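stage 2 :: seqdesign
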Protein backbone atom coordinates (compact mmCIF):
# COMPACT_ATOMS: atom_id res chain seq x y z
CA UNK A 1 0.00 0.00 0.00
CA UNK A 2 1.36 3.42 -0.94
CA UNK A 3 -0.01 6.41 0.89
CA UNK A 4 0.38 9.52 -1.21
CA UNK A 5 -1.64 12.32 0.33
CA UNK A 6 -5.16 13.61 0.69
CA UNK A 7 -5.07 15.57 -2.55
CA UNK A 8 -8.42 15.37 -4.39
CA UNK A 9 -7.10 14.13 -7.73
CA UNK A 10 -10.52 13.59 -9.35
CA UNK A 11 -9.61 10.08 -10.47
CA UNK A 12 -8.52 6.92 -8.65
CA UNK A 13 -4.90 7.89 -7.97
CA UNK A 14 -3.67 4.58 -6.53
CA UNK A 15 -5.00 2.53 -9.42
CA UNK A 16 -3.40 4.99 -11.84
CA UNK A 17 0.01 5.03 -10.17
CA UNK A 18 0.26 1.39 -9.11
CA UNK A 19 2.13 0.29 -12.26
CA UNK A 20 4.41 3.37 -12.23
CA UNK A 21 7.32 2.02 -10.11
CA UNK A 22 7.50 -1.20 -12.11
CA UNK A 23 7.28 0.76 -15.36
CA UNK A 24 10.16 3.01 -14.29
CA UNK A 25 12.24 0.02 -13.30
CA UNK A 26 11.38 -1.64 -16.63
CA UNK A 27 12.62 1.46 -18.46
CA UNK A 28 15.88 1.99 -16.58
CA UNK A 29 17.01 -1.53 -15.67
CA UNK A 30 17.84 -4.62 -17.65
CA UNK A 31 15.54 -7.60 -16.99
CA UNK A 32 18.37 -9.42 -15.19
CA UNK A 33 19.25 -6.53 -12.86
CA UNK A 34 15.58 -5.69 -12.28
CA UNK A 35 14.87 -9.21 -11.15
CA UNK A 36 17.97 -9.34 -8.96
CA UNK A 37 17.27 -5.91 -7.43
CA UNK A 38 13.67 -6.76 -6.64
CA UNK A 39 14.60 -10.17 -5.25
CA UNK A 40 17.38 -8.77 -3.05
CA UNK A 41 15.28 -6.04 -1.48
CA UNK A 42 12.35 -8.39 -0.94
CA UNK A 43 14.55 -11.08 0.64
CA UNK A 44 16.43 -8.58 2.79
CA UNK A 45 13.24 -7.08 4.21
CA UNK A 46 11.39 -10.38 4.55
CA UNK A 47 14.28 -12.03 6.39
CA UNK A 48 15.50 -9.03 8.34
CA UNK A 49 18.89 -9.32 6.63
CA UNK A 50 20.27 -5.83 7.13
CA UNK A 51 23.65 -6.61 5.54
CA UNK A 52 21.92 -7.66 2.30
CA UNK A 53 19.68 -4.60 2.57
CA UNK A 54 22.70 -2.26 2.83
CA UNK A 55 24.56 -4.04 0.03
CA UNK A 56 21.51 -3.87 -2.23
CA UNK A 57 21.01 -0.14 -1.62
CA UNK A 58 24.67 0.61 -2.28
CA UNK A 59 24.51 -1.38 -5.54
CA UNK A 60 21.34 0.44 -6.56
CA UNK A 61 22.95 3.90 -6.26
CA UNK A 62 26.24 2.71 -7.76
CA UNK A 63 24.29 1.69 -10.89
CA UNK A 64 22.90 5.19 -11.52
CA UNK A 65 24.93 6.67 -14.41
CA UNK A 66 27.16 9.61 -13.46
CA UNK A 67 25.76 11.80 -16.23
CA UNK A 68 22.41 11.85 -14.40
CA UNK A 69 24.16 14.13 -11.91
CA UNK A 70 25.87 16.48 -14.37
CA UNK A 71 24.76 20.09 -14.70
CA UNK A 72 22.49 19.81 -11.65
CA UNK A 73 22.80 19.49 -7.91
CA UNK A 74 20.19 16.76 -7.35
CA UNK A 75 22.68 14.72 -5.28
CA UNK A 76 22.43 17.32 -2.48
CA UNK A 77 18.74 16.63 -1.86
CA UNK A 78 17.37 14.00 0.49
CA UNK A 79 14.23 13.78 -1.63
CA UNK A 80 16.22 12.41 -4.57
CA UNK A 81 17.57 9.46 -2.55
CA UNK A 82 14.20 8.87 -0.88
CA UNK A 83 12.43 8.87 -4.26
CA UNK A 84 14.82 6.33 -5.78
CA UNK A 85 14.36 4.02 -2.79
CA UNK A 86 10.59 4.57 -2.87
CA UNK A 87 10.36 3.46 -6.51
CA UNK A 88 12.60 0.50 -5.81
CA UNK A 89 10.58 -0.68 -2.81
CA UNK A 90 7.27 -0.06 -4.55
CA UNK A 91 8.39 -2.20 -7.49
CA UNK A 92 8.90 -5.13 -5.13
CA UNK A 93 5.32 -4.91 -3.89
CA UNK A 94 6.19 -4.05 -0.28
CA UNK A 95 3.70 -2.19 1.89
CA UNK A 96 5.18 1.25 2.42
CA UNK A 97 4.34 4.74 3.48
CA UNK A 98 6.34 7.91 2.85
CA UNK A 99 6.34 10.99 5.07
CA UNK A 100 4.52 8.80 7.60
CA UNK A 101 3.07 11.24 10.17
CA UNK A 102 3.17 10.67 13.91
CA UNK A 103 2.28 12.96 16.80
CA UNK A 104 5.92 14.15 16.93
CA UNK A 105 6.96 14.38 13.30
CA UNK A 106 7.23 12.48 10.05
CA UNK A 107 9.05 9.23 9.39
CA UNK A 108 10.74 9.51 5.99
CA UNK A 109 9.61 5.99 5.10
CA UNK A 110 8.01 3.04 6.83
CA UNK A 111 7.93 -0.43 5.31
CA UNK A 112 5.85 -3.30 6.65
CA UNK A 113 6.37 -7.01 6.05
CA UNK A 114 4.54 -9.95 7.60
CA UNK A 115 6.57 -9.87 10.80
CA UNK A 116 8.59 -6.64 10.77
CA UNK A 117 8.15 -2.91 10.46
CA UNK A 118 11.07 -0.85 9.18
CA UNK A 119 11.24 2.84 10.07
CA UNK A 120 13.72 4.61 7.80
CA UNK A 121 15.20 8.08 8.08
CA UNK A 122 17.47 9.56 5.40
CA UNK A 123 20.18 12.21 5.75
CA UNK A 124 22.51 13.76 3.15
CA UNK A 125 26.03 14.80 4.17
CA UNK A 126 25.29 13.93 7.80
CA UNK A 127 26.08 10.82 9.86
CA UNK A 128 23.67 7.89 9.78
CA UNK A 129 23.62 8.02 13.58
CA UNK A 130 21.89 11.41 13.31
CA UNK A 131 19.12 9.82 11.27
CA UNK A 132 18.80 6.89 13.69
CA UNK A 133 18.85 9.33 16.61
CA UNK A 134 15.95 11.27 15.13
CA UNK A 135 13.81 8.12 14.96
CA UNK A 136 14.58 7.36 18.61
CA UNK A 137 14.31 10.94 19.93
CA UNK A 138 10.97 11.52 18.22
CA UNK A 139 9.64 8.15 19.38
CA UNK A 140 8.49 7.17 15.89
CA UNK A 141 8.28 3.48 16.86
CA UNK A 142 5.46 4.20 19.33
CA UNK A 143 2.98 4.46 16.46
CA UNK A 144 3.56 0.79 15.61
CA UNK A 145 3.86 -0.79 19.09
CA UNK A 146 0.36 -2.30 19.08
CA UNK A 147 0.98 -4.28 15.87
CA UNK A 148 3.01 -6.91 17.72
CA UNK A 149 5.76 -6.96 15.10
CA UNK A 150 9.50 -6.52 15.44
CA UNK A 151 10.45 -2.92 14.66
CA UNK A 152 13.72 -2.09 12.94
CA UNK A 153 14.97 1.50 13.04
CA UNK A 154 17.22 2.42 10.11
CA UNK A 155 19.30 5.55 9.56
CA UNK A 156 20.74 5.90 6.07
CA UNK A 157 23.34 8.57 5.29
CA UNK A 158 24.20 9.61 1.74
CA UNK A 159 27.11 11.63 0.44
CA UNK A 160 26.32 14.25 -2.19
CA UNK A 161 29.92 13.96 -3.38
CA UNK A 162 30.03 10.15 -3.59
CA UNK A 163 26.34 9.95 -4.63
CA UNK A 164 25.86 6.80 -2.61
CA UNK A 165 25.25 5.44 0.87
CA UNK A 166 28.06 6.33 3.25
CA UNK A 167 26.53 4.78 6.34
CA UNK A 168 23.60 2.53 7.11
CA UNK A 169 22.94 1.99 10.81
CA UNK A 170 20.09 0.08 12.36
CA UNK A 171 18.70 -1.04 15.64
CA UNK A 172 16.20 -3.81 16.16
CA UNK A 173 13.49 -3.40 18.74
CA UNK A 174 11.78 -6.34 20.35
CA UNK A 175 8.02 -6.43 20.23
CA UNK A 176 6.71 -4.00 22.85
CA UNK A 177 10.08 -2.25 23.34
CA UNK A 178 10.02 1.53 23.09
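stage 2 :: out
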Amino acid sequence: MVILSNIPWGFPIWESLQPLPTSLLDHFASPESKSEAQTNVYLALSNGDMELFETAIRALFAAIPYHNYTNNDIARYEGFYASVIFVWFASSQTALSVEDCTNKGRIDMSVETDDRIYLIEFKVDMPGEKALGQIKTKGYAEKYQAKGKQIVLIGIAFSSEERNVTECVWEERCVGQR
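stage 3 :: structure notes
- The beta strands are 2-3, 95-101, 106-112, 116-124, 150-159, 164-173.
- Residues 1-23 have pLDDT under 50 and may be disordered.
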